[in-house]
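Incident review: delayed structure delivery

Summary: a single-chain prediction request sat in the queue longer than the usual turnaround. Root cause was a stuck worker, restarted by the on-call engineer. No data loss occurred. The affected request and its eventual output are reproduced below so the record is complete for anyone auditing the incident later.

Affected input:
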Amino acid sequence: MMAAAAKTRYDAVAMSLHWLIAVLLIFMLFFGEDLIEEEDGFERFGPSLHVSIGSTILVLSLIRLAWRLFNPPPAYPAGMASWERMAAKAMHLFFYALLMGLPLTGWLATPKFLREEGAMAGLTIFGAFPLPGAPSFGLPMKDIHELGANLGIAMLALHVLAALKHHFIARDDILLRMLPFRRTS
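Output delivered after worker restart:
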């Protein structure tokens, strides 16, 4: 019996979830605040769109985490330093925490947000159902949410720089294993 070939790429489900979450996260990190600011012209639908995209990121991230638990990623290249492996694993954990923490802290910030912005009442998720009420813990959830978004921008930059470093300097397949259009040999 022949041994199965080592997995060198993420599967289509993992890639699709990665890129869909990435697009939504990038949009929210750079434009999410604009969606809830009245002066930006989004006052009618922006806050609900913000909630809807955040909820989608949370659900897709939970699906991606479950998928990853049952479909392990490909092994790191043999030449990758042990500190790089540890850093990559830590970055993945931090990203999962961020992808779930940002929507949850945003939701937990809604009671205070709605008290301050009464006109924003009636938040819905894709217009289909109302956003469930969040408990109020008396913590500065809006500040925690904003700090998370700023950390997210820094993590995104670091993630992209690391992928480019691996592609152009180390010349390994770290970046290529997540690209859906890569030719297989």
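Verification: The chain has a mean pLDDT of 90.
Action items: add queue-age alerting; document worker restart procedure.
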